[in-house]
Amino acid sequence: MIRRGAKERDFRASPIGLKRTIIVATLPRVQCHDCGVVRQIKVGFADVRRSYTKAWAKHARQLTRSMTITNNKIKTVQRQFYGIRDREYFELLLYSLHATKYALVG
């Protein structure tokens, strides 16, 4: 391997609190003796050709799952209360969904 400089890359990471987190890494470029191809080295915390870390991808998947569940609950409440004219009551129902705990009975 022959070193061929370096390139600075930004990777989006999991947020800390409400703060967006970015990892800035300087990755060396290397050239293969046999084939002459120049490539960046692989990093363990991110997949190839991605601008985010594996931890951030996991965080995004978890958020997507919880948002899907919340959206399904909202759609159910909308179906149940179709035609209600009291918008404030409907909004209170939506806010109460977040605090509602469901349990299996039987």
Task: Give the topology, please.
Blueprint: E1 2-16, E2 19-31, E3 38-40, H1 54-80, H2 87-99
Antiparallel strand pairs: 1-2, 2-3
Helix pairs in contact: 1-2
How large a portion of the residues is in β-strands, by DSSP E?
25-35%
Order of helices and strands: EEEHH
What is the helix fraction of residues, given as a range? 25-40%
Spans of at least 5 consecutive residues whose pLDDT stays below 50 are none
User: Helical stretch count?
Assistant: 2
> How would a crystallographer describe the biggest sheet?
3 strands, antiparallel
* Envelope shape: rod-shaped
Mean pLDDT: 79
How would you explain this protein's 3D organization?
The chain has 106 residues and is an alpha+beta fold. Helices cover 38% and strands 29% of the residues. The protein has 2 domains: 2-52, no CATH class; 60-99. A 3-stranded antiparallel sheet has the order 1-2-3. The longest helix is centred in the middle third of the chain and has 27 residues, at 54-80. The model has no long low-confidence stretch (mean pLDDT 79).
Summarize this entry quickly:
The chain has 106 residues and is an alpha+beta fold. The chain folds into 2 domains: 2-52, no CATH class; 60-99.
Summary tags:
106 residues; alpha+beta; 2 helices; Transposase IS204/IS1001/IS1096/IS1165 zinc-finger domain-containing protein; Transposase_Znf
